[in-house]
Amino acid sequence: MNRRTFGKTVLVGALALPSRAVALGPSVSGGGRGIPLSRLREQMKAQGGREVRVPLLPEAAEALKGVESLEAEGSGRVPHYLRAFGAVPAAARPFAQLIKTVYTRGSVAPAVKLAMGLTLAQLDGSPYAAAHLERLLRACGEKGRSLLRALEVGSYSGLEAPERASLEYARALGRGPTGLDDATFDGLRAHYHDAQLVELAVTVCFSSYFTRLCEGAGLPIEPWAGDTLPAAIPSAAESSAPRVALMSDAEFDAYRELVERAKSGQGAAKSLGLGIAHSQRAMVRAPEQMRAWFGYWATVREAQAVDTATKLQVSFAVSMQNGCRYCTVHQVVGLRRAGVDVAKLIAMKKDDAALTPREKVAVVFARQLTRQPIVSSPADYKALEAEFGTQGAFELLLQTCAFNFMNRFTDGLRLPSEDEAIKVYQEVYGPGSYEGYRKRQ
Predict the structure, then answer these.
(1) What is the DSSP string of 91-115?
(2) What start and end residues bound the annotated signal peptide (predicted)?
(3) In angstroms, rounded to a whole number, what is the distance separating the alpha carbons of residues 34 and 125?
(4) CA-CA distance, 183 to 144, in Å (whole number)?
């Protein structure tokens, strides 16, 4: 497998899954180009009276006042994807900032990124996410409409080469980190420089997060969504940047922030002892997206209705399900530092027998939502809620979404594991275990 230079980081070959995860396979919900938009529209209409699974914030809630919504200013429209944070209200505002940053800011045209998001909604079979992403795409002028036509007919042949490459990349990585081959990545790389590649990676990863949040929470479409457009979305400025982008002032500033955070007590406590992780070193190339993602996630992590070990169990299960070598190794580090017994860690590589009944409820839900978001049922979420309560269930939903994001980001870019992470992994599974894991591909 090829090695690629990514800034100063070498993107090495992704590692194979343990045997149990190979049997489960990555998330593939649609096959081909996913569910046709016409069918998703029909499903969306049928779900108008859908039973929402999470407490919704009131539209006039303090947490939603002044948010940077993608809806037209003064419209009074508050989408359910922002109201869904009733269990963790403090996260609503940074989530609004995150979704706006991912899709409308940066150097890649918003229409392209929204079309990538809509591709993920097709793959994951999410009528709700598809409805909103289609609305946003229609607000992007002629470029948005041409991309929407391509998605409607299921053919990219009439698009410009960079747009075709972007959608093929979204389709490949959207299936899971093991679904992205060298040819597809190299096709994208021919049109974008490194900073833009990270921006596009974040777009796909966030879209995977978004579809699972919408389906896991059971969000029904708003009555106004089918008949109105959001605010007009401006096009990105044409970029004449060199193919190998020079590091910008914004990237330097963002990296200094990471260094300061790593030196602080709080940063060190949350870094698993790894300093600045390679995932952070990569994401800093898209500083706006990095700040929005980490700012949002820092707010979510403040919620503590579920203990850290259980959340790590969920992250481990999702990473195994998706075949993410980088995140699987990180979760082993986290679980080991949380005091989980080595024997239990070894057993968890094979099956769920070592999990407590409470842990198993969380893990089974996380795997199901990871594998096929649209199959997740109200009964699945109610079982989670019965065990962990309203806030705890929502925290675990967000944890599941987060590692569907991170798995695609880290292994989609083939980020190498940090030396300290490899060391801890080998302390758990024995000398040479990491190399053995790495060669099973």
Answers:
(1) GHHHHHHHHHHHHHSSSS-HHHHHH
(2) 1-23
(3) 7
(4) 26
The 10s digit of each residue's pLDDT in 35-91 is 999 999 999 888 767 889 999 999 999 999 999 899 988 899 999 999 999 999 999
Q: Could you give the number of structural domains in the chain? A: 3
Q: Are the C-beta atoms of residues 54 and 378 closer than 8 Å to each other?
A: no
What number of H helices and E strands is found in the chain? 21, 2
How far is residue 435 from each of residues 5, 6, 323, 412, 438, measured CA to CA in Å?
21, 22, 16, 20, 5
Q: Which two tokens stand for residue 40?
A: 């998703």
**pTM for this structure?**
0.89
Name residues whose C-beta falls within 8 Å of residue 421's C-beta, 6 or more positions apart in sequence.
Answer: 272, 274, 329, 330, 333
Three-state secondary structure call for residue 10: strand
C-alpha torsion sign, points 224, 227, 228, 233: positive
Least confident of 23-32, 221-230, 231-240, 364-373: 23-32
> 131 with 277, same domain?
no
**Domain boundary, last residue among 216, 236, 269:** 216
Q: How far is CA 304 from the centre of its chain?
A: 21
Closest CA to 321 of 366, 374, 380: 366
Residue 229: inside a domain: no
Q: Residue 92 belongs to what domain range? A: 27-216
CA distance 197 to 3: 16
Domain-located, residue 3: no
On whether both 41 and 118 belong to a single domain, the answer is yes
> In sequence order, what DSSP letters do the residues of 389-416 get, joined into one string?
HHHHHHHHHHHHHHHHHHHHHHHHTTPP
The C-alpha atoms of residue 15 and residue 326 are separated, in whole angstroms, by: 8
- Backbone angles phi and psi of 115, in degrees to 5: -65, -35
Q: Is residue 121 part of a domain?
A: yes
